[in-house]
Design goal:
By secondary structure, the chain is α+β, with helices and mostly antiparallel strands. The protein has 5 domains: 31 residues; 64 residues, SH3 Domains (SH3 type barrels, Roll); 73 residues, Roll (SH3 type barrels), CATH 2.30.30; 71 residues, no CATH class; 72 residues, OB fold (Dihydrolipoamide Acetyltransferase, E2P) (Beta Barrel), CATH 2.40.50. Helix content is 31%, strand content 29%. Helix 2 runs antiparallel to helix 3, helix 2 runs parallel beside helix 4 and helix 3 runs antiparallel to helix 4. The N and C termini lie far apart (159 Å).
């Protein structure tokens, strides 16, 4: 009987302990706020990171007493709404600046990536994606461009991370409904048209000039003229109130100078090609003339100066070279017997005919049927 009494005491004690533990657990659960909630930072120089882990890059720091909005937790890391000063990077090629409000950018593509920004990491190395935007979405430009990226305010859905060990929940976030849009009052005065800023005006001028540049580039090289466009861009670049438009204009001026240099090089190369072609034509013409002359001279059996030589009888001639050395003897054929050859004597000529033996000298004699003065 005593044995059963001891068993009953042990069971009663266990149930009492279990009840106490359950009561404590329930009490703690009541104190844990549901997401989202506001938490207070409990340390100094606490890193804000681009992802849930120390291998993600630092995007900023928090100090003791700073408050953050926690939306979820993962593996000991709190997912938070980017605090004041947080920013993101987005590629400039997918953003068009709103001309009416230069602080607003309009997305021009689909699935455009947004990356967690950091003062410690260059934009091109900021690889933590915080979301994607689509055509027509709007972003707030924070007035800084770097390495072809815009610095923007974190869009909806962009979050950062803080180690949960440095946070202490304070109060739940109270989701207050947005204030209703004011209704139009029939008796209210019609507001004046919003004044367009100098920056917005200059941005419009800049985009108009960009279209003109594209139109010029489509023209043949000999018709392209950037002078007037470049002059207007310089005016925008020198305007201290033009803001982004001034920076864009300065960049495009550099591009135009590159285009102009390319055009100048193209013209120079074209001119050199024309000159080369003309030179080649002159060379070809001279070569053709020399070939024609060579072909013409090829019909002569001998070329040289014609001299009278009566040692072997009347009607004998001889041909000597430029040094005066005799080349051969020459005799006119029967058909040339009545031709007055005196005008050829002492002249350089070419003889057409046949080479025959010359009995008197045991050499050769040209019996020519035609004589042509060469110079």
């Amino acid at each position: 009987m005593e044995f059963y009494s001891n068993i009953l005491v042990i069971l009663t004690t266990c149930l009492a302990i279990a009840g106490t533990a359950t009561a404590k657990l329930d009490a703690n659960d009541v104190n844990v706020p549901s997401f989202p909630y506001v938490a207070e930072i409990t340390g100094d120089d606490v890193n804000i990171r681009s992802g849930p882990g120390t291998n993600y890059y630092t995007c900023g720091k928090l100090n003791k007493g700073d408050r953050i909005e926690v939306v979820s937790e993962q593996f000991g890391w709190s997912r938070i709404v980017p605090p004041a000063g947080g920013f993101c990077w987005i590629s400039m090629q997918y953003v068009s600046v709103n001309l009416d409000d230069p602080t607003i950018g309009i997305i021009t593509g689909d699935g455009v990536r947004v990356y967690a920004g950091s003062d410690y990491v260059e934009p091109m190395h900021s690889t933590s994606e915080q979301g994607r935007l689509n055509r027509g979405d709007k972003v707030k430009l924070l007035g800084e461009e770097k390495d072809d990226y815009y610095k923007i305010a974190p869009p909806s859905g962009a979050y950062l991370w803080v180690s949960t060990q440095y946070t202490k929940p304070t109060t739940p976030v109270i989701q207050t409904p947005p204030a209703p849009e004011p209704t139009a009052d029939a008796n209210a005065a019609v507001p004046k048209e919003k004044e367009i800023s100098v920056e917005a005006q200059k941005l419009k001028e800049y985009y108009d000039l960009k279209k003109q540049i594209e139109a010029e580039r489509a023209k043949p090289a000999n018709q392209v003229n950037y002078a007037d466009i470049k002059k207007q861009l310089i005016e925008i670049a020198n305007n201290k109130e033009a803001g982004k438009a001034a920076r864009y204009a300065e960049y495009v001026i550099g591009q135009i100078e590159g285009f102009e240099l390319a055009l100048a090089v193209t013209k120079e190369v074209k001119l050199q090609n024309q000159q080369l072609q003309q030179t080649m034509q002159r060379i070809d013409k001279a070569r053709a003339a020399r070939l024609a002359k060579a072909e013409d001279l090829g019909r002569f059996v001998v070329i040289g100066q014609l001299q009278a030589f009566k040692t072997y009888g009347p009607g004998h001639y001889r041909i000597v070279d430029d040094s005066g050395k005799m080349i051969c003897y020459a005799l006119p054929s029967e058909e040339m017997a009545e031709t007055d050859l005196s005008k050829f004597v002492g002249r350089k000529v070419g003889l057409v005919g046949a080479i025959q033996p010359h009995p008197q000298t045991a050499g050769a004699v040209v019996q020519f049927t035609e004589v042509v003065q060469l110079k």
